[in-house]
Amino acid sequence: MSCKNTNFIDKKICVVGCGGTGHELIKILINYTKNITIIDSDKIEITNLNRQFWFSKETCSMPKAEVIGKKLNIEYKVAFIQNFKSDFLNKFKIVFLCVDNIKTRMDVNLMFIQSKCNLLVDLGVEGYACHIKKVENNSTSCLYCIKDIYKIENTEPLCSLSFFKQINLENRTKALKSLIFELQNEYDEFIVDSKITEIFNSKVNKMDLRTNEKEVYELRNTIVPSIACVNAICACLAVKIITDESNDFYFYDGSKTIYLAKEKIKKDDNCIVCKSFENI
């Protein structure tokens, strides 16, 4: 799959999110232009290192946007995109949205519709599958038009166990999954369930929070990996969709075979976002 596209030259670009997908996208864009602004509020976790290749153990706890921005000498902002008003997007021709939660997607979708920016491209990855949605201001369906698709993608991102100030009944499952994911990365998956059980139980102070090998085994088999190659494929498709005049939505699935669907999604007649700003 070729990512060659001269459409980015001399265009000011914004990339929201510097995680796995954002990483791969920036690697492509930097070949064409340095007129890029990256935005991310997150700090680097050790669980990022298996797929976010500009980071290292030495950069853990540093802001993602700052590390990449300084490394590539491009503009960066360590912030939530919601901290900016809609007119912040006016100076950009293209906004790439590389985030992992529905709320931020919908917030940026609204900001984009209210702005003078020409193009919004949303990228999403889950396991061996990914989607790309192109929004051309008010001329195509927006992200809210396809909100039901995002409800299906409900995989909660994992982080380092150190993120949890205190483990309680509400967050213990996510904390345990995060520990499993972190230790699998650190030991290249060669760590036995009993060791994970021992480490987790040493960090909780109540009996009802403790785990056992059976639970650890079951959770290890439910963790959906973030595959670096799928992130790269998603980034390439995001570049390709820019010049695709016939389609505004791509779906790729590499779990069993290589499957790629392309289509143009019609506006939802009941979309409250499109209806509110159709005269803008």
UniProtKB/TrEMBL annotation:
Catalytic subunit of the dimeric E1 enzyme, which activates NEDD8. Keywords: ATP-binding, Ligase, Nucleotide-binding, Ubl conjugation pathway. SUPFAM superfamilies: Activating enzymes of the ubiquitin-like proteins (SSF69572). The gene is ECR1. Pathway: Protein modification; protein neddylation. InterPro entries: ThiF/MoeB/HesA, ThiF_NAD_FAD-bd, Ubiquitin-activating_enz. One of its GO terms (cellular component) is nucleus. It catalyses: ATP + [NEDD8 protein] + [E1 NEDD8-activating enzyme]-L-cysteine = AMP + diphosphate + [E1 NEDD8-activating enzyme]-S-[NEDD8 protein]-yl-L-cysteine. The lineage of its organism: Eukaryota, Fungi, Fungi incertae sedis, Microsporidia, Enterocytozoonidae. GO terms for molecular function: ATP binding; NEDD8 activating enzyme activity. GO terms for biological process: protein neddylation. Belongs to the ubiquitin-activating E1 family. UBA3 subfamily. The keyword Glycoprotein does not apply. Residues 11-271 form the THIF-type NAD/FAD binding fold domain. It is an enzyme of class 6 (ligase). Its EC number is 6.2.1.64. Pfam families: ThiF (PF00899). This is NEDD8-activating enzyme E1 catalytic subunit.
